[in-house]
Write a structure and sequence with these properties.
Blueprint: H1 2-34, H2 52-101
Length: 107
């Protein structure tokens, strides 16, 4: 019972608040119709976009940064593959040397 009473009370309270807000808004609208000189009139201003050269320069700089990152990534990948190949070849040469050329001498 208490929960349903609480729900009803909260619902009525909310409805009362909504009605008060609507009444206040309607009163403001009526006052604005009666006294139009008290309304705040904002002067409209045409939007001025940024200079096109600045925008183009910013995009060019961003593009060059992206290109530089791409080139660095490619160079890093090439360097990593070269080092990996060198390590593999040197390891194979060392293992081959140990197995075939560096045999224990029998006396």
């Amino acid at each position: 019972m208490n929960s349903s009473d609480n729900d009803n009370n909260s619902l009525e309270r909310r409805e009362r608040m909504v009605r008060e807000i609507e009444t206040e808004l309607r009163l403001r609208e009526l006052e604005a119709e009666i006294n139009p000189e008290h309304q705040k009139i904002h002067k409209t201003v045409k939007h001025k976009p940024k200079e096109s050269r600045k925008i183009l320069l910013q995009k060019a700089v961003l593009g060059l940064k992206l290109l530089a990152v791409g080139v660095l990534a490619l160079v890093a990948a090439k360097l990593a593959s070269f080092l990996a190949a060198a390590i593999i070849i040197l390891t194979l040469m060392f293992v081959s040397y140990k197995l075939f050329l560096n045999s224990p001498k029998k006396s």
